[in-house]
Input
Amino acid sequence: MELHISLEGRRDLGGQLYRQLSEAIRSGRLPDGQQLPPSRLLASQLGLSRKTVSDVYDKLGYEQLLVGKVGVGSFVQTPQTKPQLRPGDALLASSARLARWEALAPPLAHGPRSELARYAFIGGRVTPALFPHDEWRRCVQTALRQERGERGNYAPVAGLLALRTAIAGHAAFTRGIVCTPEQIVVTNGAQQALSLLAHTLLEPGDVVVVEEPGYPMARQLFEAMGAHVVGVAVDEQGMVVAQIPDGTRLIYATPTHQFPLGMPMNTARRQTLLERAGQLGAIIIEDDYDSAFRYEGRPTDALQSMDRHGLVAHVGSFSKTMLPELRMGYVVMPAALVRAVQAVKHLTDWHAPTLMQLALARFIDDGHLLRHIRRCHDVYAGRRERLRHWFDGPLAPWFALVPATAGFHAAALVHDHVPLDVAQLLRIARRADVGLQSIAPFYHGAPNRKGLLLGFGAIDTLDIDAALGILLGILQDMQPLPA
Output
């Protein structure tokens, strides 16, 4: 690849070369350690004498912007000061829009594992060691062989038929989903599924209902589309359907395992939600983010399985059952939405990577996914029991766990009569290497309850006892029990 240098005219060619290389190094366009072409080669490419190029390299070396290595070449040496971004000269017509995006606080953003506390109860994270890496590697290798004959071609917008067929069978078996492969669109994670549905269904000013508290990334996405987002309270049965206002166009809900509190929506409430959506002509987005892990009671099918009028778009994710970095999800749509959502998908990113689709299809068809879920289920069930032991026992004077039957996070609410400063508790716990998360950020308005979100997907079972023992000591210091 040639180094981009643009010389004009016939005068001061060495000066032009020096200024362009110096600016490229100081601005960071040429990164630290980048090897420059040999002086003879660059001189030939630019039509200069080799001496001119060598003199420029020597000057940059004197200024410590280049370092020469005998027998190897010349390498960029970036100055210690960081390059400054050049301010824009023009006032952009979209500057107000840019400012709104810049002011958007990214929700649920976690740093790398190295920055987490030793004992971290982080929602949505899994234990990578539980993943069957050998089986997945074999599926990827098979996919590479399958893909060999199709390289250079774009794939179907909705996703490869093999994967959509595998997903339809898996969803029917595990969640009671009633669909055909033609109703499925494969997405880059559940978040893209939400984005596709929002782009397809919403216009500025449309009313969208979300749970309060709820998933902040869904709320912010709908608001970014210009929708008027209304938070509807949840009770022990989930979303309070009676509060859904007239004129609602879209309803976002987590019926199986409410996020973040965790309670399931019972059958009667689900039926009421479907009836209300039918009255409004509203689409319900059912976010089924971690329902694969169920611990007690009779299995509950997805809300989509109760839908008789084409109102429910069921969003599923493999981030919680496999690994989040795979970025694989899907949406099962009512027939009326299929063509429109596919058109939006085509315009945004065309299709998900085919290699991952082929590998995932094989992973599902060979039974690896179900076996992996069963193994994780046993581990998560044990961790859940340790949480219940502590919050039903030593920690019960301060907290009460919200009853939940699925997933791998739980919410512990502070008793109304306990004047506990949760923010202070989190700070003290972090200094003791215990990472806790408040439920406050999941409220759009002022929280009406205080509590903790306890993700147990990424913390070892033995570490739960150690961490909650530390938490108990902190609580006894902060808020001693009455004698």
Remarks:
- Residues 166 and 361 are 6 Å apart (CA to CA).
